[in-house]
Specification:
- With 339 residues, the protein is α/β, with parallel strands linked by helices.
- It has 2 domains: 226 residues, Rossmann fold (3-Layer(aba) Sandwich); 68 residues, no CATH class.
- The chain is 31% helix and 22% strand.
- It has 11 helices and 12 strands.
- Helix 3 packs across helix 4 and helix 3 runs parallel beside helix 6.
- The protein starts with a strand and ends in a 23-residue tail after the last strand.
């Protein structure tokens, strides 16, 4: 498959107050992230709160500039300092946010909200209104009933459908869904997820699906990226990552899912301890302070995202899977004699 979007060693830092005396500290929200999204793929992005998922989404939409690395969109690097490139990104990438109410202008009707972006690109008002009504119909909101309603007159699921209509009305290639269904109840959530699947097939869309709900990510995604404290820990097909997780953090994340089966109760916490402060992360592997298989090499040297096994697309940043790393569980270097 052809990659429509890729990021290479992307990084973003924030200066925050680090002490009561006003000294500034540096928080690395996204650190050396690299991955690619194929055309018409759904790439899931998971991780604990504070792992950098939403910051990464904002970097990809040029809402904030990166401090390091680069973004490549349709085989052309994006220069975030260029107004022309930012317009190119806005034409190709749209985003749906978590808070459906805060994302909408309370003074705009549903049709006005969807038409606003279309008109801002130079379309005549009549054409923008027509396209807005078509987009509302696509997301299951009959224009005759919903076009003239204001956000406070809509339910949460209906408001999120307006947000989705606003995104697809601009004919993007990629839609980033940042916790887009997490605020909805389960029955409405299922309807919106099915709608997203239908729109993907009908319009040929590519999704970056960000969620803390691992079951929803598995249902929606083709591949998954696991992040922890600003770093990518594992990448692979959704079935491979969920069925045979490689990184200890991924294993803990998968094990933390709630089950409706009473015979599958969790007897002990999958991972202990709180995530370290992003102002002062541990040396070496970011997960070393909570990892059950940590060894001295883990604290001494940061593991690089490395392929392992027979699947060349399966990557993990764990010394236990890097040949010759010095970890007792690491495979031997090819050609090395066993002792």
């Amino acid at each position: 498959m052809t990659d429509i979007l890729s990021v290479e060693s992307l990084g973003k830092d924030y200066k925050v107050r680090g002490s009561p005396f006003g000294r500034k500290a540096l928080v690395t929200a996204v650190d050396d992230c690299s991955f690619a999204v194929a055309q018409n793929e759904v790439l899931g992005l998971v991780g604990e709160s504070g792992s950098g998922k939403s910051t990464l989404a904002r970097l990809l939409t040029c809402l904030i500039p990166p401090d390091r690395g680069r973004i490549v969109l349709e085989n052309a690097a994006v220069d975030v300092r260029s107004a022309r490139d930012r317009r190119r990104v806005s034409r190709r990438i749209q985003m749906v946010f978590q808070d459906s109410y805060a994302s909408l202008n309370p003074r705009h009707t549903a049709a006005e909200e969807v038409a606003f972006g279309i008109a801002a690109r130079g379309e005549p008002r009549s054409a923008a209104e027509r396209q807005a009504r078509e987009a509302l119909a696509l997301v299951g909101l009959a224009p005759s009933l919903f076009a003239e309603r204001y956000p406070h007159e809509l339910s949460g699921g209906q408001r999120q459908r307006v947000n989705i209509a606003r995104a697809i009305a601009l004919s993007p290639k990629i839609v980033i869904l940042d916790e887009a269904v997490s605020a909805l109840d389960k029955s409405v959530q299922a309807q919106v997820l099915n709608l997203l699947g239908s729109l993907k097939d009908t319009l040929g869309l590519t999704y970056l699906f960000i969620s803390h709900d691992l079951d929803v990510v598995r249902y929606m995604s083709d591949r998954v990226v696991v992040m922890y404290l600003g770093k990518v820990m594992e990448i692979g097909s959704v079935d491979a990552v969920y069925d045979t997780p490689a990184h200890p953090y991924t294993k803990a994340l998968i094990a933390s899912r709630l089950s409706t089966d009473p015979t599958r109760r969790t007897a002990a916490a999958p991972v202990i301890g709180d995530p370290p402060s992003p102002i002062n992360p541990p040396p070496g592997c970011r997960f070393s302070s909570r990892c059950p298989i940590v060894e001295p090499i883990c604290r001494a040297r940061e593991p690089r995202l490395t392929g392992f096994g027979c699947d060349q697309h399966r990557l993990t940043a764990c010394h236990a899977h890097i040949a010759g790393s010095g970890h007792r569980l690491a495979p031997a270097v090819e050609g090395e004699e066993s002792s």
